[in-house]
Design goal:
The complex is a heterodimer of chains A (470) and B (310). Chain A is mainly alpha-helical and 470 residues long. Chain A is built from 18 helices and 6 strands. Chain B has helices at residues 2-17, 33-41, 47-61, 74-80, 82-109, 114-128, 131-145, 157-163, 165-199, 202-210, 214-227, 231-241, 246-251, 257-266, 270-298, 300-304, and strands at 66-67, 72-73. The two termini of chain B are 29 Å apart. Classes of the chains: A mainly alpha (470), B mainly alpha (310). The interface between A and B is large, with 36 and 39 residues.
Chain lengths: 470, 310
């Protein structure tokens, strides 16, 4: 058939026949162009799309904004600046995220802090002026605690550098129980000579409490020196004063920056979501395509397998795999793909089964197209819209489930973090440090809403039957 | 379905038996339960034989294995926790159904009006935000910030005795509301979608052309048809209540089946895990059967569709 001599072909028309036809004057709009046009009309979905773009931007670049690796280098110094409240530049002038916190502390401690040179500007409001003027003011006799609003960064620095908040309580209990506990215990630092010199040069030291000399057995001329000092903790940890320190979402108990942690967790979970949906769609769609297109015994066999696999709950698979192999990233991916491919399988099978008897497939087959060509070239493009939609909806489903299980502690990464784990850690301390709970929760709520709106918009956009309905 | 159930349970069994630390006798057990159960469950025999013995023990003695966590037979521990799970789940379940139906119907009848938009946005938000976030935030807001709830967790039986019955009941209010709010949106959305579809059907046009008012047509025809698909799931949901919810029980500290699951997971109590998984599969099996049967009761199309009447 291919080797027909071209000269034998004859034109049916006369050469001077006029073909009366006009080119289409409208602009050609393809399927995807049309989908995009309709997607754009859906304002909520479009907004969700932009929100997702912003979140993705932060997921990729967020952790780079703050080059802060103190918790890895020096966990002790990092934990001393833990639980700081959120503070964002510029926004702080509006009265929110300004690093303040309302706390309740003892009267003696507050007065001592207010009078100390180092504690200047810590208390913003809440301490009565009469009491500051006259510590024995009769109006406030018997009131031992006050609720005050403090600049928490300066407050933290004060309690970590000069005087711990239980200073007077320790003194009282010493008197009462006749013990000899050091009230300055948690702020007293013991330095070697070299450290002392270094800190002195950098002006970190606030006060020298004691210098101890001990004999050096090797060299009698030069003896060892130990310096007990009070140091400015923010300068030691961060090399900057509290006024210049900004942790956008605050810090966690061990001094990690919450902003960085949220987006590190988001990055991990989105990468895993990508891996999971890629595996799921490749495995599911190809199996479904084969089963739906060829049918027969293979289809029946796949049906039974799918029935069994789909009746196994994800939770069981995850629990067993985690118990067997530990909470590693690939284990989680495996658990989610072990039962997750079923959804894509059903989509793929349904589409191929539906289209395989269409006229255009018959036409293609009549023209001699192979099975593979029909599947890839003719049927697959028709299924693409549905597949893309279910992918867009399975990303939030994955993030949702992963967050839930890591919140419950079933997924518990040892070397990385996830938003669910952050929320779980925040839940434990939600009374004292609410920001640790609120920020991860708000993040995941916004992400979920945005993804679902986006997915719904996509679903409507790829559904040609809805065209012109809106 | 029964075959699927047996195969999946067998798969669980094999997988659990293949855990590397399954057979190590825990230290300091005190008694010789290890020897007894080794003998009884045939721990030195091949896995299929063990499975057969395990099944035999269930029917012969009602024994599902020995819990290393509680030092008792797992079934006594597990089944004693079911009432607590039911207690927390049953009220939200029956509250959420009428609320969901009402919201769904209102939204469908007033489609694209203000009230529909409000309901739809609310549904969207509560479907999207993970349940555990809603629950934890509600604890934070209503206990720590506003102080409305008496206690963020539910009262234990001893607290019931010490603090009084009404205090105990009042600790249930917050979890019940949260659970209700969490289970309404999905259901309401499906009701709305179903009813919307029925409202545009041809028989509605016919009904109105016969002279029925829109209200009559909706309540006599559309609503009936729209709610039929939801009746079987409502009955199945009652079975699901037995299974409890891990998230709820973890957050509100309910001493129920969900927490047992987590405890068994954390302390690697394999016999308990096996029981929990089997029981879950069993409930799934029962619900599947019940749903298949109940469709013939509720949906005449299934009954008449068998070809006998046509």
């Amino acid at each position: 058939m291919k080797n027909i001599d071209k000269t034998k072909l004859v034109l049916v028309h006369d050469k001077d026949d006029l073909i009366v036809d006009q080119p289409l004057e409208t602009k050609e709009i393809g399927y995807y162009q049309d989908s995009w046009n309709r997607f754009k009309k859906n304002k909520a979905s479009l907004a969700a799309f932009y929100i997702i773009c912003v979140v993705l931007f932060y997921v990729v670049f967020g952790p780079l904004f703050k080059s802060y690796n103190l918790p890895e280098e020096n966990p002790v110094d990092a934990s001393r600046i833990g639980n700081l409240t959120p503070r964002i530049p510029l926004v702080e002038n509006l009265g929110i995220f300004d690093g303040t916190k309302t706390i309740r502390r003892g009267r003696q401690f507050l007065l001592a802090m207010n009078e100390s040179e180092f504690g200047e500007g810590v208390i913003l409001e809440g301490l009565p002026q009469e009491l500051i003027d006259d510590p024995n003011h009769p109006d406030y006799e018997g009131i031992n605690t006050f609720t005050v609003k403090v600049d928490y960064y300066k407050y933290k620095n004060y309690t970590q550098s000069v005087m711990p908040s239980n200073y007077f309580a320790t003194i009282d209990s010493n008197l009462e129980n006749d013990t000899d506990e050091d009230p300055l215990g948690s702020v007293r630092r013991t330095l070697t000579r070299d450290q002392f010199q270094e800190y002195l040069e950098k002006n970190y030291i606030i006060e020298i409490l004691q210098i101890r000399e001990s004999a050096n057995e090797d060299d009698e001329e030069e003896s060892y020196f130990q310096y007990e000092v009070l140091v400015n903790q923010f300068l030691v940890s961060l090399d900057q004063v509290p006024e210049d320190t900004y942790f956008w979402f605050g810090t966690m108990g061990d001094g990690r920056d919450l902003f960085t942690q949220i987006f590190l967790g988001a990055r991990i979970s989105l990468l895993m979501a990508l891996a999971v949906i890629t595996i799921n769609s490749i495995v599911g769609v190809s199996l479904g395509a084969v089963a739906g297109y060829f049918g027969g015994a293979l289809d029946l066999m796949m049906d039974r397998i799918v029935e069994i696999v789909s009746s196994i709950p994800l939770l069981s698979v995850l629990v067993l795999l985690v118990l067997r192999f530990g909470s590693k990233l690939w284990v989680v991916v495996l658990a989610f793909t072990a039962t997750g491919w079923i959804v894509m399988y059903r989509t793929g099978r349904m589409q191929f089964y539906r289209f395989k008897n269409r006229d255009y497939v018959f036409a293609a087959r009549t023209l001699g197209a192979s099975d593979r060509r029909i599947m890839f070239k003719h049927i697959f493009p028709n299924t693409l819209g549905l597949i893309v939609t279910s992918l867009a909806l399975s990303i939030p489903a994955f993030v949702f489930t992963e967050a839930t299980f890591s919140f419950l502690g079933i997924i518990n990464y040892s070397d990385t973090t996830s938003v669910g784990m952050l929320i779980q850690q925040g839940q434990v301390v939600m009374q004292q440090h609410p920001h640790l709970l609120l920020f991860p929760s708000i993040y995941i709520a916004i992400l979920m809403i945005a993804f679902n709106l986006f997915g719904n918009g996509l679903r409507d956009a790829f559904n040609p039957s809805l065209r012109g309905v809106e | 379905m029964v075959i699927t159930f047996i195969i999946t349970v067998f798969l669980f069994f094999v997988f659990i038996k293949m855990m590397p630390d399954n057979f190590t006798p825990p230290p300091l057990t005190g008694d010789d339960w290890y020897e007894i159960y080794k003998e009884r469950e045939g721990w030195d025999k091949p896995i299929p034989v063990q499975f057969a013995l395990w099944v035999r023990n269930i029917f012969a003695d009602g024994s599902f294995g020995f819990s290393t966590l509680y030092n008792r037979d797992v079934s006594t521990v597990y089944f004693s926790k079911i009432p607590a799970s039911i207690k927390i789940n049953i009220v939200p379940y029956f509250l959420s159904i009428p609320i969901a139906i009402v919201l769904g119907v209102i939204a469908a009848l007033k489609k694209n009006e203000l009230i529909d938009n409000i309901i739809s946005v609310g549904i969207m938000i509560f479907i999207s935000v993970p349940f555990f976030v809603t629950a934890v935030l509600s604890q934070f807001v209503f206990y720590f910030e506003l102080g409305w709830a008496p206690w963020p967790y539910i009262a234990t039986p001893s607290e019931f005795e010490v603090q009084g019955f009404w205090y105990g009941i009042s600790t249930y209010i917050l979890p019940v509301i949260v659970l209700t709010i969490a289970s309404v949106p999905g259901f309401a959305r499906r009701v709305r979608a179903e009813l919307t579809e029925q409202l545009t059907a041809d028989y509605m046009l016919l009904a109105q052309s016969k002279g029925l008012t829109r209200r009559q047509a909706v309540f006599r025809h559309a609503l009936k048809n729209a709610l039929v698909p939801f009746l079987p799931p409502i009955f199945i949901g009652i079975i699901g209540i037995l299974n409890g919810g891990i998230i709820t029980e973890q957050i509100f500290r309910v001493d129920g089946t969900g927490r047992i699951y987590l405890k068994a997971f954390n302390s690697r109590d394999y016999a308990m895990l096996m029981l929990v998984n089997t029981f879950g599969q069993f409930l799934t099996l029962i619900s599947a059967i019940v749903s298949d049967i109940s469709y013939t009761f509720f949906d005449p199309r299934v009954r008449f569709g068998s070809g006998k009447l046509s």
